[in-house]
Design brief:
Layout: E1 2-5, E2 8-11, E3 16-22, E4 31-37, E5 44-49, E6 56-58, E7 66-71, E8 76-81, E9 90-98, E10 101-105, E11 109-114
Parallel strand pairs: 2-11
Antiparallel strand pairs: 1-3, 3-8, 4-5, 4-9, 5-6, 7-8, 9-10, 9-11
Length: 115
C-alpha cells in the first residue's frame, strides 16, 4: 500500500512537501513516481525516481521547482514543491512501477495553490 500525505492550501510562491509511505512492497525494487490530476483533466506525470534513487525525471512544467527524492530506509518517497503556482492545484498521487507499469497507487492528497 501507498499512503500519501502533506497536501494542503498554500499561497502562490509557497512550498509544500508531499510524502508517500509504502508498506507491503519490496520498496527498494520499485521505481516510484508522482502524478497529479486537476479538476476536469486527466492524470498526468509529475516526477519519478529509480529504485536506487540514482536517476530522477520530471515533467517540463515542474522542472526547477519540484524535486523528487526517496529514503529507502524509511520506505518513503517525497516531492518537494517550491515556487508553487495556481496551476499546480490538483490531487497528487504517488505510484510504484513494476515491470514498466505503474501498478500500485496511493489514495491522493489535495494541493491547492491560491493566487
Amino acid at each position: 500500500q501507498l499512503q500519501a500525505s502533506g497536501g494542503g492550501l498554500v499561497q502562490a510562491g509557497g512550498s509544500l512537501r508531499l510524502s508517500c509511505a509504502a508498506s507491503g512492497l519490496p520498496f527498494t525494487t520499485y521505481n516510484l513516481g508522482w502524478f497529479r490530476q486537476a479538476p476536469g483533466k486527466e492524470r498526468v506525470f509529475v516526477a519519478s525516481i529509480t529504485y536506487s534513487g540514482g536517476s530522477t525525471y520530471s515533467a517540463d512544467s515542474v522542472k526547477g521547482r519540484f524535486t523528487i527524492s526517496r529514503d529507502n530506509a524509511k520506505n518513503t518517497v517525497y516531492l518537494q514543491m517550491n515556487s508553487l503556482k495556481p496551476e499546480d492545484t490538483a490531487v497528487y498521487y504517488c505510484a510504484a512501477q513494476f515491470g514498466g507499469v505503474w501498478s500500485f497507487w496511493g489514495q491522493g492528497t489535495q494541493v491547492t495553490v491560491s493566487s
